[in-house]
Amino acid sequence: MKKLIIAASLAIIAIGAAHAAPPAAKKEGIESKDYKWNAQEGEKIEALTKKGDKKNGEEAYEVCGACHLPSGAGRTDGTFPQLAGQHSTVLIKQMADIRAGLRDNPTMYPFAATLTDAQELADVSAYIESLCIPVDHGKYDSKPLDSAKDWKAPADTAQQLAQGRELYEKECKTCHGANGEGVKDKFYPVIAGQHYKYLLRQMTEIRDGKRRNANPDMVSIIKKYDDKQLVAISAYQSSLVMPGNMCKPKAGAPAKKK
What we know:
Layout: H1 2-15, H2 42-48, H3 54-68, H4 88-100, H5 109-112, H6 118-130, H7 157-171, H8 173-176, H9 196-207, H10 216-222, H11 227-237
Helix pairs in contact: 1-3, 2-4, 2-6, 3-6, 4-6, 7-11, 9-11
């Protein structure tokens, strides 16, 4: 039965994932005065108490791999984020929020909806967490896949990284860590190895109130930054490397953490 679900889900991509299933009914988020970030309730808290089975999670991940790639690398253009090595707590929270209608993601919802229960949510999260973090991801100066022959890398890369580092170390490092490692038990995500364009899009949406399941603490920090500052922070964040957690450069098949 699971294989049939996977095959059907992969087929959805060809006709448009948004038409696969109706989105979950919207749940009140940060726009509500009663919003409590990361409230410990429902499917999420149940999944967090379960031990994830990585072998079962690998099978469940086949649905996710269609967009996020089998390696968990996502897409360098930022359309789909890098997931590999992400804290299982963060993955559980985000998928549960999407399934519950607290985070708006109509493209991902039909796929997240194929997970049958809290145990499978824990399983797939454990498997994704076990994957090494790709080093060949989209950075500020990465060459776009659709670039023209005369494309040149941005001349201000060093300047952006320097400004981004200053801003990051001032207010981001406390939660996300010196190397972008995040904090698992506080649900602060790993950002090392994440694509520049994805980081920029998410921070812009958080600042502008479009990420309804955002952490209010982050909103209060990021809302004062203008577009140029967000570019610099994203550029620096996408340059971060976590010792011991990254895949070997130019490796063949994607490796897994031991």
